[in-house]
Every structure is written in C-alpha cells, then in structure tokens.
Amino acid sequence: MTSSKPGPTSDEEPTIGRLVADTSRDLSTLIHSEIQLAKTELTFSLKAGGLGAALFAVAGFVAVLAIIMASIAFALFLDWWFAGTATAFTIVFGIYLLISAVVAWLGLKKIKQVKAPEQTIATMKSNKQVLKRG
Fold first, then answer.
1. What percentage of the chain exceeds 70 in pLDDT?
2. Alpha-carbon distance 92 to 98, whole Å?
3. Chain-wide mean pLDDT for the chain?
4. Side-chain-facing half-sphere of 112: CA atoms under 13 Å
5. DSSP at 2
6. 0.90 surpassed by pTM
C-alpha cells in the first residue's frame, strides 16, 4: 500500500511557486500558533496578576485599619498616662502630620533627582540626522 502525500513525488522537484506557497502557509500557521500561545499565557498571567493585585489591596486595607487601631490605642494610652483625651488625640495628629511632612520632603528630594534621558535624546537626534541624509 502506498500512502498518498501532498507534494511532489520523489522523482519530481518542487517548483519555486510551490515552495513559496508552502513556506507562506507554514509561516502563517506558525504565527497563528504563536499568537494563540501568547494569548493563552497572557490570560493565565493576567488572572494571576489580577488576583495578586487584589490580595495586595486587601492587605493594604487591613494595614490601614491596623494603623488606625494603633493610633487610637496610642491616644488612649496618652490619655490614661498624662494628658486629657483631646490633648492625646491632638498629639497623635501632630505626630502623623510630622511623619507626612518628612515623607513629602523626602519625596520632593527624590523627584528633584529625576533628569531627562540625555544620552537617549542625543542618540535619537543623531539617528534623525542619519535618516535625513540617507
């Protein structure tokens, strides 16, 4: 029994047109397969990433609740120890205001360190000049 294969037999040489058509079909199939694989991988990654982001959000929310509870406990401790309730909560407020001012100052220092990508800009200008010439 002989199996019938598409394509040339052993005594025929494929034509250039046939080779181009086969290559084009195979390349198209390869590209479609790669795109499908990428979609599958990205779908899985996005689901995992979304779940991870949601879990980070929940952890952040619980941390904020913990900070609030610790602040109230600290204010009540100050009230019990030496100050009145209003004074104790004002002290806690002042501490948070001081912390936020220090963090804002540190952030401002870091933002002032940001500079333009000068080497990239110079390279792009050079590339632009080369492209204009040629």
1. 91
2. 10
3. 87
4. 6
5. -
6. no
Q: Are 88 and 78 in contact (CB under 8 A)?
A: yes
Count the alpha carbons within 13 Å of 55 in the hemisphere toward its beta carbon. Answer: 6
List, for residues 75-112, the tens digit of each pLDDT value.
Answer: 999 999 988 999 999 999 999 999 999 999 999 999 99
Instruction: Give the pLDDT score at 93.
Output: 95
Residues of the chain with pLDDT under 50: 1-2
Domain spans of the chain? 16-133
Q: How far is CA 114 from CA 50, 107, 118, in A?
A: 30, 11, 12
Give the model's pLDDT for residue 1: 46
Q: What are phi and psi of 130, to 5 degrees?
A: -65, -40
How far is the C-alpha of 39 from the C-alpha of 104, rounded, in Å? 42
Burial of 75 (0-12, 13-18, 19+ CB in 10 A): buried
CA distance 24 to 16: 12
> How open is the CA angle 76-80-84, to the nearest 5 degrees?
80
Whether 29 contacts 39, CB under 8 Å: no
